[in-house]
Design goal:
By secondary structure, the protein is an alpha+beta fold. It is built from 3 helices and 12 strands, in the order ββααβββββββββαβ. The strands form 3 sheets. A 5-stranded antiparallel β-sheet has the order 1-9-10-5-4, with no helix packed on it. Strands 2-6-7-8-3 form a 5-stranded mixed β-sheet. Strands 11-12 form a two-stranded antiparallel ribbon. It has a single domain, classed as Sandwich (Immunoglobulin-like).
């Protein structure tokens, strides 16, 4: 059975993106200080990003004037997922803990990851944040976002007169009307 998740409309996600970039930058610098080798900035950045951020796989499709987004987030409690949208972006955050307890015995191999899920997506077209719906089922987040409709109207285009033209008609400003 699908669980409906709340979607928060926000003005901007830039502060949260900047905060995460700063966090990654500080961790990358810590790695540089330990390593001490120059010229490995990208390597340090990517390693810091892998340590701090979990980016789950996703699929974004468009159909019937709507974006459909599927994000694989197995093991994440849907109550821990925070979804924020603007007309241009989606920000998805959650904690993805994985801990070993002694009562489960000695762990020989573990490939489960843990960390902070942090994923931002820029939509190819403007969406209507009021028409975003999110559901969680079987470890997959399904999100539908209606594409915003452009308002039809008239735009007046003016071409400036060019200097040093010999004909009178070329010296005047020409206006054209364009219907959208």
């Amino acid at each position: 059975m699908a669980t409906t998740l709340p979607v928060k409309k926000t003005e901007s996600i830039s502060d949260e993106l900047k905060q995460m970039q700063d966090h990654i930058m500080h961790r990358a610098y810590d790695r540089f200080e330990r390593d001490g080798s120059l010229g490995r900035d990208l390597e340090h950045w990517l390693a810091a990003e892998r340590e701090l951020v979990w980016k789950p796989p996703l699929e974004l499709t468009e159909r019937n004037n709507e974006f459909n987004l599927r994000i694989a987030v197995p093991g994440v409690d849907p109550r821990d997922i925070d979804i924020k949208v603007t007309p241009e972006h989606l920000l998805l955050k959650a904690k993805a803990p994985h801990e070993h307890s002694e009562d489960r015995g000695h762990v020989h191999v573990c490939e489960f990851g843990s960390g902070n899920l942090f994923r931002s997506i820029q939509f190819p077209k403007t969406i209507n944040p009021d028409k975003v719906k999110a559901e969680f089922q079987n470890g997959v987040l399904h999100l539908n976002a209606g594409i915003a409709q452009a308002e039809a109207g008239k735009i007046e285009l003016k071409a400036p007169a060019r200097a040093n033209r010999t004909r009178q008609s070329a010296r005047t400003t020409r206006s054209e009307r364009v219907e959208l």
